[in-house]
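Hallway conversation turned thread

IA: we were arguing at lunch whether anyone had actually written out Nitrite/Sulfite reductase ferredoxin-like half domain-containing protein end to end. Turns out nobody had. So, for the record, here is the sequence (217 residues) and right after it the structure tokens. Reply here if something looks off.
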Amino acid sequence: MKDALKGAILQRDKTTYAIVPRTPAGIMTPDQLESIAHVARRYEVPVLKITSGQRMALVGLAEQDVSRAWDDLRMEVGEATGLCVHYVQACPGTAVCRLGLRDSLGLGLELEQLYVGRELPAKVKMGVSGCPMCCGESWVRDIGFLGKKNGWTMIVGGSSAGRPRIGDLLAEGLDREQAVELAGRFLDYYAEQAPKRHRTAKFLEKHGIEAVKEALL
């Protein structure tokens, strides 16, 4: 891909592109929403789509408009194709939800700041849920956190892809600092042990959760 088209995803028509601004944990400001609307109107973007990763995709940009659209947006590029941590999705948690038991937005934003963009053997997606209702899809993410009364439960190796997999429970009763630290150590272990392009689901199927626990706990 040309340098000018960095952050652009070629569409099935082979002529237009999608771009996905970074919106940590799905949080956006009024100014960012106005920028997206401005770009969509200016460049006649035919489709605006909220993605499963809680981001806004602008789909159908002409090649010559991609760089100018990014300049007008004044937002960071959301990782969408690289072998790295792509995003952290999070439910509202205790910030607003009456069912929330833990601050999922706070944890999600901290994980996003620390780990998104980190290069790894394959793409990694994270989900943070503030209660066992699991609105952050924690059980089907490469790394998931689930809020309970006694702390955070950490889940690894989940996938909602073509071969879906419920993740494995790695640890329970974690405070926020422990959750962030264990996520980092799991990423270190995965980076050292996994072959290139092996998602965490395939990695866990091969190595087993007990081997991961023995290495990390």
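OS: looked through it. Residues 176-193 form the longest helix (18 residues).
IA: good, adding that to the notes. The chain is about 30% helix and 25% strand.
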